[in-house]
Design a protein that fits this description.
Thrombin, subunit H; 6-stranded antiparallel barrel
Length: 236
């Protein structure tokens, strides 16, 4: 949920202000970089003054870090809020009461978010970056693509539109691992708030999925959805 509001911050010699932007308890995204620079100012800490007037007033100051996002169309800036527990609870309640859900792009196949209680959810994705074998955690997955993330420094070498080969490994004998290739369509760089390490989230659109691998992927997704359905029924 988000609300529309104004916010501002100062960094070095720059005084930056945005008006009528979508603000959530996690922060803001999709901002133009100018006059800042993605490589120079990513990760910088700032204090953000937030002012919301409609549909009800809500004002606060919050420490934040500058994050960045890349797509084939643009490079944008964001702010990752570090709200204290009481601030987070208050602003979350405010956005739940007065906010609007994001209008997301309607996908042909919705992404299934990572749920650690699902045993056969892909536990890792394995790929090789510049000759180095790497493991990623899974953020979400669909028949069309996957979102993965890692704090390994090597992942920051990846670029938009780069083609990579990957293995989606559920860590079990059944369903089988999926071998596929994909094109990087989205990169989001933010931070692990506990460790304060930079995290790169990589959105990959599958570009090569042979019939046998497609079968393995659909078996995996079906198994995940059946387990989610079973847990929902159990909770009810």
């Amino acid at each position: 949920m988000f609300v529309l509001g104004d916010f501002s911050f100062q960094l070095d010699a720059f005084s930056i202000k945005f008006e009528n932007k979508k603000i959530s308890p996690f922060g803001v995204s999709g901002l133009p970089w100018a006059p800042l620079e993605p490589m120079q100012h990513f990760g910088k800490s700032v204090f953000v003054t937030v002012s919301i007037s409609k549909p009800a007033p809500f004002n606060f100051v919050v420490p934040a870090q500058i994050i960045r996002e890349y797509t084939p169309a643009a490079s944008t800036m964001g702010l990752q809020f570090h709200l204290e527990e009481s601030q987070l609870a208050a602003f979350t309640e405010f956005t739940n009461q007065h906010g609007t859900p994001p209008v997301a792009y309607t996908r042909k196949f919705p992404r299934i978010p990572s749920i650690h209680l699902i045993q056969t959810y892909p536990l890792k994705v394995i790929t090789t970056i510049r000759g180095q074998k790497m493991e990623f955690e899974v953020e979400n997955i669909s028949p069309e693509g996957i979102m993965i993330f890692s704090e390994n420094e090597a992942v920051f070498d990846l670029k938009i539109k780069e083609e990579i080969s990957l293995t989606i490994d559920p860590g079990l004998n059944e369903p089988y691992p999926v071998q596929t290739q994909g094109s990087i369509r989205r990169i989001l760089d933010d931070f692990n708030l506990g460790r304060r390490n930079a995290v790169r989230h990589v959105g990959i659109q599958f570009s090569s999925l042979p019939e046998n691998e497609k079968k393995n992927l659909m078996t995996l997704l079906r198994d995940i959805l059946l387990q989610i359905k079973g847990k929902d029924q159990t909770e009810k």
